[in-house]
Amino acid sequence: MERFINPDRNQWQALTQRASASYASLEPLVKTVFNAVEKEGEQAVKNYTLEFDKVEIQNIVVSKQEIVQAVDRVPNELKVAIKRAKENIMRFHEAQITAPVEVETQPGVSCWQKKLPIEKVGLYIPGGSAPLFSTVLMLAIPAKVAGCQEIVLCSPPDSNGLLADVILYTANLCGVDSIFKVGGMQAIAGMTLGTESIPKVDKIFGPGNQFVTVAKQLATQYQVSIDMPAGPSELMVVADKTGNPDFIASDLLSQAEHGPDSQVILVTNDIEIADATFEKVAEQLEKLERKSTAQKALNNSKVICFDNDQELLDFVNRYGAEHLIVCLDNETEFVNQIKHAGSIFIGNYTPESAGDYASGTNHTLPTNGYVRQYSGVNLDSFLKAITYQKITADGLIDLGPVIEAMATAEGLQAHKNAVSIRLKTLKS
Amino acid sequence: MERFINPDRNQWQALTQRASASYASLEPLVKTVFNAVEKEGEQAVKNYTLEFDKVEIQNIVVSKQEIVQAVDRVPNELKVAIKRAKENIMRFHEAQITAPVEVETQPGVSCWQKKLPIEKVGLYIPGGSAPLFSTVLMLAIPAKVAGCQEIVLCSPPDSNGLLADVILYTANLCGVDSIFKVGGMQAIAGMTLGTESIPKVDKIFGPGNQFVTVAKQLATQYQVSIDMPAGPSELMVVADKTGNPDFIASDLLSQAEHGPDSQVILVTNDIEIADATFEKVAEQLEKLERKSTAQKALNNSKVICFDNDQELLDFVNRYGAEHLIVCLDNETEFVNQIKHAGSIFIGNYTPESAGDYASGTNHTLPTNGYVRQYSGVNLDSFLKAITYQKITADGLIDLGPVIEAMATAEGLQAHKNAVSIRLKTLKS
Q1: Which ipTM value was assigned to this complex?
Q2: C-alpha angle B291-B368-A399 in degrees, rounded to nearest 5
Q3: B388·A343 Cβ contact <8 A
Q4: Are B250 and A414 inside 8 Å of each other by CB?
Q5: Rg of chain B over CA atoms, in angstroms?
Q6: What are the pLDDT digits (tens) for B216-242?
Q7: In order of start, what are the domains of chain B with their CATH numbers?
Q8: Is A96 touching B (CB cutoff 8 A)?
């Protein structure tokens, strides 16, 4: 971990820079995959699974029987934990339900807004070294709370052509309608275009590697929307002398173990905390199974000390972390001044992993500075708002002249006529 | 207007098809513009304004003095109308403010969600034959209600290098911070990348032609988000015998006058209404200033009659209109079954132009079937949600084992450690 003391503002651009994957360099390959799936359908999906995932799949659909068997095999203790997490996540997302907005903007002019579920949603669950069933919870629960009619899930098969039992268990528990053993670009292409078995969806959710990310961005050119562009995960810890170096080190490492491109930053006004955390990181790192991955991430990581509180706050806002842990004496005041972050974890007993799994908040969050304009996945991500209006005859008599004047000024005579022709019948 | 009676479901795909602009064919030109603006900054913006808009601009920034003079020149009657519209639009968008969501998901585990404004937003106001100041209202008002810190507006200059007085008046009235005489792809590139005078924004809003639409989609590859992909405007009217053919004709024509690619459809269960509306359209069309534009749009327009109510409803949902006017005896029952539409206008005295200008709802809406997954512009379009959590020591003692079990099952030992290391201090 490199250390910086009171870095000058002109250094901040470099200090907040993420390793950016190049969209342009990956796009041609992703387009090829989309074109093949468009032309050859499911056969193309299977061909790419063989080519990229090195496994030949006869039937990409997970059967009811496979699910029943998987549910059987998941240890009971794990089921209990998953159900506890599910309850918390459901509670937090149900609390996000909003009543319709209804306003009589002026007498006789009623306007309202109602949120309706997005009908068909596709959830992408990445594969890799471990079965990320927690992401199933984070995407399927709000989809179900929103009332989405069809929930489709794709995840890459392992070398035996199977999905992990716990993925199937969790998907089934959360009411996913269909599960496919397909990953990568070909999964995104499949959900975007539809194949013989994979339904074409309206919106695609979920994290993934750089190919999946580019595929999701390409999908937006095919009548599909996406939750957000995703990138390598990030954690920033802000601590003063009230922070606990042992805890902070464990948080930094929990992020570092995700992948060699994970972003890990400690910002502090206390050089002793920085030094002590350094030591604890080294100590804890030794005992990690994923030590070599974490070590690589730590090589790009930073400890930044600021004497000036305002500079510290400005830097934290400038960085815009996906995950922000705040261990400060004046935590409330500080947090109220944070403008850009994905999810904020406050105090010494709030590790990021609580939000990753079980506290209730969503762990699918914007990275790479996209916190400036994107929300993390939440209930609204699965809804769309429709507006309605009804105007009475008297309402139109009052509002009509305003519309007529504006339409005339915009040179849109037929827009004016639509009002005038009605007013004429009301005044005669 | 072509007429269809009880079209078979296998015809629906064709009947709901929009004229789709090809992203691929326009992309190379749009990329060239982005690259030039990235390299040469504002000079490139000026060069393209000369090339595409045929006007040489020395200074693209609208000065305070220009605004003062414009405000002076706008007729008082129009000012009064705009202010009335502003009040209604503000009232409806203020009603969309939501309180923070706060939940103790389990004892000692507090989770909350708060919406914060997107800091810098860019509003694109198209030019063309008329000054679309109503779009300024529809974008700047919710931006201001949301609390966006910097509101930037770009609109193409006329042949004298100027913006219409009423655009400047409305922008000033709504609290826009800076206004630029720049349109088209170069405006989108300018707000995406920033130039000497145009600030780089976080999110870009507003309608535009196909070049602007492709430019907005390209912008999403440069750390900018957009409101939605936009296309030619659409209106569907659903009427039974309670509809008024004169009113319906005026609504269809108000949409048709927008442009030759406007989509206009009448769906009815009453052939007499269809026939009568045909006549009224022909009659009203003769008197329109924009007759030739409207005529072109009508050439692609359709009247569709269904005997079967369920078929009619299904077709309306399948089409997913940007604007949907409902004049039916059972209007409430019907509207409650609509799943896909942008904005719905109910009853004989609710012309679409009310929502275009002054009733309070937003007129920036998804087209081309994107109502399936996008909301129209609303207050939330200018906000992002951040989640927060704070766990007490006791809360972690209770929830910790759940997190540990799940992290272990995902093979993420450091995630588990972040909990274990805290629990150890609490239990000792």
Answers
A1: 0.96
A2: 55
A3: yes
A4: yes
A5: 26
A6: 999 998 999 999 988 889 999 999 999
A7: 2-17+232-360 (3.40.50.1980), 23-97+114-229 (3.40.50.1980), 392-427 (no CATH)
A8: yes
